Structure formats: C-alpha cells, structure tokens
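Q&A log
Question type: sequence-to-structure
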Amino acid sequence: MSLFSVLNVSAQINSSAQESSFWEHVRFGGSLGLSTSNDFFTLGVAPSAIYEFNQQFALGVSLNYTYNQLKNQYKSNIYGGSILGLFHPIPEIQLSAELEQLRVNRSFEGNFSGLEDDNYWAPALFVGAGYRTNNITLGLRYDLLYNDNRSVYASALTPFIRVYF
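Response status: OK
Response body:
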C-alpha cells in the first residue's frame, strides 16, 4: 500500500513538473490598432500565443478582428485566425511563415460606386523577416497569395511589429 502511495505521489509530482515546464515555453502577445480621422475609423485586435520549442523554433496561433468604417460609404468586419512559425538563425534575426484565413463582411451604404455588399474568405500566406531585440521584433512580411481585389491589406508587402511576453 505504501509503495502504491509513493508511486502515486511521484506521478503527480512529475505531471505537475511537465505542466509547469510546458507553460514556461508559452509566450503571449499580439497587437492592438486604432486609426481615426473625420471620415474614417479602424479598430483592430489580434491576440497571439506561441510555444518556443527551443531558442530557434516557435509555433503559435493568433486570432484577428478588425472593424473599418468610412463615413456614409461602407463598413466592414474582418475576423479570423492564423498559424505562425518562427525561426531564429541567430537571436537578433527572426524569419517567419504565417498562414492566415480571414472572413470579410463588407456593407456599402446607399449606392456607393455601384458596389454591392460582399462576404468572402481572404487567405494569406506570409513569409517575413525581422530584427528582434528582447521581446520585440520589427520587420516586413510578404503575402504570397496576395490578390488586389480580395486582400484586406493595401499591398502584398506589409510591415509588422511582434511583441511576446
């Protein structure tokens, strides 16, 4: 009976140590954006989490929500998620690949330029590179699936700032 108790306590301690070890490798971060003028308003929220396998490789997920409004012309809700892979050949350089899938719901007010309301999926496949210092990375990413008519971004090449704690 005492042998069983010792094995049970040992298993619980090992399980707790493994759980603790897992969370020591998880980093949380994301972005928050706000842009406004007399006629235009944008709000974006994108929480993110990564798991660092070692000092060179990390894999993570992100959620994304953006609201856009151009006064008396259109409104859009954009939401979705992404899977992100990070590679650090040296501590200061971050290479990334990200598969993003966003749902776009656009509604036009009145008969703005003859456009009709639209709902569609907008995929993106980004490859990027950045400079990392501590927990902040500044860089550029390029969308290999960029489509002028469907992408939610103004260009295939976009700057990024990543922060993980």
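Response note: The radius of gyration is 21 Å.
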